Amino acid sequence: MQPPLENESIVLVFTLSGLNETMGNRFVFFSLTALYYLLIVLCNVTIIYTVISHKRLHEPMYVFICNLCINGLFGTAGFYPKFMYDLLSQYHVISYAGCLLQIFVIYSSVLCDFSTLTVMAYDRYVAICKPLEYHSIMTNQRVREWILFCWLSPFFCMCVGVVLTSRLKLCGSIIEKLYCENWSVIKLSCFSTTVNNVIGYVVIIIYFGHAILIFCSYIHLIGKCRKSKEGKHKFIQTCVPHLLALLNVTVALLFDVLYTRYGSKNLPQDLRNFMALEFLLIPPILNPLIYGLNLTRLRKQVMRVFFKTKVEISD
User: Fold this and answer.
1) What residues form the membrane-spanning segments (predicted)?
2) N or C: which end of the chain has fewer CB within 10 A?
3) Apex CA 158: angle with CA 264 and CA 78, to 5°?
C-alpha cells in the first residue's frame, strides 16, 4: 500500500486567485457586472414570459428558444452572484461542495446549450425539408422528449465528471480562475487523473460532434433553400440566428477548453480573465437578442409586452 504524500491534505475550501490583480477597480467592476447581469436576466425573462404567455408562440421553435433562455438564466446563476460577492470581499474563497456545484451548474448549462441548438437544427430541417409532415413529426410529445434530452444528457455527463473529480486526493487549493472549473481542480490532484482526462475528452468530442452535425445539416439546408424565395426567406429568418448562436457557443467553449489546458500563464491576468469568461458573457445575452430581434412573430409580441400596443401577428 502506497504511503500518503506529505503534501496531501483534506481540502475544505478553494481560493480563487483570478481577481488578485484587479481588486483596485473592484467597485467599478461590481457596478458593471451588476448592470450586465440585470440585462441578461431582463432579456431572457422577457423572452420566456413572452413565449409562455402567448399561445400563438406555443410552437416547437419558440419552445426551444424559451428553453435556451431558461438555460441561460440557469448557467449565469452559477457564476454572477458568487462573482459579484467576491468583488466586494477581501477573501475569494469557495467551499469544496460549492466548487463542485458551480462546476456542475456552469458546464451542464453549456452542454445544454449544445443539446438545445441540436434539436433546434432538427426542427428547422423538418420545417424546411418536410413542411407537409412537420406537425405530424414535431408533436407535443416529441417536443417534451427533446426538452428532457436537452437537460438530462448534460446533467448525466456532468454528474459523472463531478463524481470522478470528487474522488481525487488533492495537493493544493488554489484555482487560478474567477470561478471553479473542472480541469483546474483536476490539476490539483496528487495522483493520476487519466480516467478524468479520458471521460472529459469523450464528453468534449460528443458535444463538439453535435456542432459538426448541425453545420453539416445546414449545408444541406442551404442547398435546399436556394431553390425557392420562400425557402431563402425562412432560412435567413430562422436558421441564420441559430447558426450565429451555435458559432458563438462553440467558439467560446472551444476557446475555454483549449486555454484551460494549454494556455500560457504569461498573459496579463485581465486578458486571461476575459478569455475564461467569454462563454459566460456573450451567449447568455446574445441568444435572446438575436432571436427576439430577428423572428418577426416573437419580436412583435415582445413589443406588445413592453409597449402594451396591439400589433398584428404575422410571420
Assistant:
1) 27-49, 61-81, 93-122, 143-164, 198-222, 243-262, 274-294
2) N
3) 75
| pLDDT, tens digit (0-9, with 9 covering 90-100), for 223-278 | 777 766 666 676 676 677 777 777 777 777 777 777 666 665 666 666 667 767 77
Which segments of the chain have a pLDDT < 50? 1-6, 311-315
Is the sign of the CA dihedral 147, 149, 151, 154 positive or negative?
negative
Q: In this predicted structure, what is the pLDDT of residue 112?
A: 93
What stretch of H or E contains 95? strand 93-95
The CA-based angle 178-180-184, given to 5 degrees, is: 100
Strand pairing class (93-95; 13-16): antiparallel
Percent of the chain with pLDDT over 70: 83
Q: Is 160 helix (H, G, I), strand (E, B) or coil?
A: helix
Sequential DSSP letters for 61-77: HHHHHHHHHHHHHHHHH
Q: Residue 190: its pLDDT value, please? A: 87
Q: Which amino acid would we find at residue 115?
A: S
Q: Shortest CA distance to 152 belongs to which of 211, 183, 112, 193?
A: 112
Full DSSP string of 268-300: -HHHHHHHHHHHHHSHHHHHHHHHHHH-HHHHH
- How open is the CA angle 226-229-230, to the nearest 5 degrees? 105
